[in-house]
Amino acid sequence: MQTRITNWARANMPTREQMERNRFSAPLAARHELWRFTRRSVPRGVAVGLFIGIFAMIPGIQIVGAAVMCLPFRGNIPMAALMTFISIPPTTLFVFLPGAIWVGNKFGFHADLSTVTTLVSKGAGVGEWLGWLGSDAAPSLVLGLGVISLASAVLGYVVSAVGWRWWTARKRRTRLLRMAARDFPE
Question: Has residue 147 been placed in a domain?
């Protein structure tokens, strides 16, 4: 059962061979274990992708960062890249930023969410953001993002590992039932 999204992804995603020809992505493409979907690499890729996707709020850096982080953790690069898309603008502005500031304030910082929303809404420049970084709000946000991204990575690892086991057990059970029906027809 293929959906429109999977068809689009297959048509537009670069193949490993195309990546091997690119001088920047060749070191990643040469390591075949980073591209296989196995019971160990998929949960690792999910965890890495969630961690980088939530913690690194800079689009473009997230996918590259997730791919590089998959090297030492031997995670699945496609899953890590896919998981970075959790931080789309609606989730970032309405879930992660307020949640991170709330978590950071629990550690003793005194950040105000209204300052962040004001800077975002008025399209603040680099100077204003750097001034905000020097305030007490930035450590609260960074610590909160770290805690949320670490908790999400652990939860994503556990859920994907359990999901992988369930999926493979279901496939095996279906295969055994088909074999039994073929060997012992009624």
Answer: yes
